[in-house]
Write a structure and sequence with these properties.
With 438 residues, the chain is mainly α. Helix content is 44%, strand content 5%.
Length: 438
């Protein structure tokens, strides 16, 4: 997903933000549905420490791009900075939730009960969408529930001011400048009205939390009233989401993945994480479905995901999971979408949770210290950022293999202790290396 490059938010665990209590998390900058698309020429940054000067830069850029006086005067002159937006964008909270806590906070009885009602209410619409776009209805409803709790929490911030604030901040100016100008294009072409523009602090809008770039490319009039209103029209929002998922490669006859059981003494040396293998490879390694049946012989590739290490839940993820990840780069979020979608059709949810799985909760600073120490002893995690992403999983796994630990790629207590002991022997500085709480 573009967010991996633009935001460096390779999060597999979303952070717990009390003000976003229904699962709308800072880690994903709301939904976003972002692709590298613009309807106007690419823009360099307009950021300036002085917001008034930044507005001047924005105005000049808009004039150069041929926008009308409606944009260059009425819209741009009325822009104002929202300090709260900058605070939220720069916040790097501690990780405070286990995978189980994350899922249970987002796949609730309310989500399931309300989602099933939405499936009934919009049956005719979903019939049409499945036939035209090939995206099963339960996934659309699942995204809807996770994004805004079926429209209850669409965001109340000025999208114009939020995007202008972020465009004028040096940290991510290029991306948000482009989104701001995409929004200008929507206004200029009368596809949206200024009075509609409320959303998240990062500029995501409507029932499904689209960014302006996504609205420009994928918006569809689902109720055939001659306009697209992703704020008030559930049909428009759901149709646009179906179009988006279809365009980015949703495979109609395949599921997102499934929970599985690892055999005792599973050979972790045979599986690298964040890498796809034929499903038959996992069958040969003894992995089974959660009901203890053998995996099918269906010709499909899969990835093994252990969000809480070898003692927690295990999943095989199929190509559609990557489509969900394009919507939101967090694997925990993507699993939530799949689990909720399954529960809407009567599934019981994640069975491993019944075993009361426990996993370590580590902070950003602890993870950063772990990454620094792994780098020091020759296991490359990339630039330490405190995030348990693909490079960190790979480095931890290689460390575990070398020092005869269970190679699940997870930053558990044994990994912290082993590295601390090794660094002590090598007389390395242990500053910043903590142990995760259980």
């Amino acid at each position: 997903m573009l967010f991996d490059k633009l935001f460096n938010l390779r999060l597999d665990f979303d952070v717990k933000i009390s003000s976003f209590k229904w699962g709308i998390s800072l880690s994903k900058i709301s939904l976003a549905l972002v692709l590298p698309l613009t309807s106007v020429a690419a823009h360099s940054v307009v950021a300036d420490e002085d917001f008034f000067q930044c507005k001047t830069n924005i105005k000049q850029r808009a004039i150069n791009d041929g926008f009308s006086s409606f944009i260059t005067t009425e819209i741009i002159e009325d822009l104002s900075m929202i300090k709260r937006v900058v605070e939220l964008d720069k916040r790097q909270p501690e990780f405070t939730q286990t995978f189980e806590q994350y899922i249970k906070a987002r796949v609730t009885n309310y989500h399931v009960k309300t989602g099933k009602k939405k499936l009934i209410v919009h049956k005719a619409l979903f019939d049409r969408l499945e036939q035209k776009y090939g995206v099963p209805r339960q996934y659309l409803v699942s995204f809807w529930g996770l994004e805004t709790v079926f429209g209850k929490h669409k965001g109340k911030m000025s999208v114009l001011n939020s995007l202008a604030t972020l465009a004028c901040d040096q940290r991510r100016s290029e991306f948000f400048t482009q989104e701001l100008f995409n929004l200008f294009t929507l206004l200029e072409s009368n596809k949206v009205d200024k009075s509609q523009l409320q959303g998240s602090w990062a500029g995501a809008m409507g029932h499904m939390q689209f960014m302006p770039s996504s609205f420009l490319q994928y918006a569809v009039d689902g109720d055939n009233d001659g306009k697209v209103d992703i704020w008030q029209s559930e049909a428009d929002a759901l149709t646009t989401a179906a179009n988006y998922l279809s365009q980015i490669g949703w495979q109609q006859k395949e599921r997102w993945g499934r929970e599985v059981i690892l055999p005792k003494n599973f050979d972790f040396s045979q599986v690298a994480f964040d890498q796809y293998y034929p499903l038959s490879h996992f069958a040969q390694l003894g992995i089974k479905k959660i009901n203890n049946n053998r995996l099918s012989d269906y010709k499909i590739d899969a990835e093994l995901f252990l969000p809480a290490g070898h003692q927690g839940s295990a999943f095989l993820l199929y190509p559609n999971f990557n489509v969900i990840m394009t919507w939101n780069l967090s694997k925990s979020y993507a699993v939530s979408v799949g689990v909720l979608a399954d529960k809407l059709l009567g599934a019981q949810g994640i069975q491993a949770f019944k075993k009361s799985e426990k996993s370590a909760v580590y902070s950003v600073s602890q993870m950063k210290g772990l990454q620094q120490n792994l780098n020091l002893i020759g296991f490359d995690t990339g630039e330490p950022d405190g995030i348990w992403g693909p490079k960190s999983r790979s480095a931890i796994r290689l460390f575990q293999l070398k020092y005869q630990l269970i190679a699940d790629g997870f930053p558990n207590k044994e990994v912290f202790e082993a590295i601390k002991e090794l660094n002590s022997k090598l007389s390395h500085d242990e500053t910043g290396l903590g142990q995760p709480s259980e």
